[in-house]
Design a protein that fits this description.
Layout: E1 7-10, H1 20-33, H2 42-46, H3 51-61, H4 68-85, H5 93-102, E2 106-111, H6 115-125, E3 133-136, H7 148-157, E4 164-168, H8 171-179, E5 183-187, H9 196-202, E6 205-207
Parallel strand pairs: 1-2, 1-4, 2-3, 4-5, 5-6
Amino acid sequence: MFGDVKGVIFDLDGTLIDSMWVWEAVDEEFLGRYGYDVPKDLGRKVEGMSFTETAEYFSRHFELPLTVEEIKDCWKQMAYEKYCHQVPLKQGAAPFLKWLSRQGIRLGIATSNSRELVDRALESLGIAGYFHSIATACEVQAGKPAPDIYLKVAADLGLKPGECLVFEDVPAGILAGKAAGMRVCAVEDQASLWLEDEKRSLADYYITDYDDLKREIITDSTEE
């Protein structure tokens, strides 16, 4: 998996951090304020969208007395404390990041989340210093499954797409990485467990968590 890799690019939510539960709670509370239940297909409808694109979707499909910017601000306020104190790294992610850094592999994040919440989570978890590029889908023309954000992060890292390996948790993200010309490893997450077969069929690799990589790459850092 890593023989010719010079850069690793992570999606954030559901991939590097265990945070999808936050957005399930936010959606339920936020829509409940305006008399809506969360549609069963909401996750698939907004999958891969940027933070702004998702707010625009809510604005179009629900009768909300808020602007797109007000929706985004509300979501950030609702999620902020959880991203500060309650969102953990995925199992095995810490030693994996340490190993990648020791190998001189350049690291990036390509996320659909808001920059404020991304920065808060990385700082709270003490991992911000590992990353050479952090980009959100609001910074590019189109969110996932378009390849834009992965191409941007690869360029920021000074690498060709084919030199990068992507870690993703949802089909739209996997498709984005593949469209960018990168190999993709799908990561299991509770929120997308029902999509496992689809994720396995789309991705080059599949892991249940980063501990799955111990036998392959992590030989001297797992006990630190």
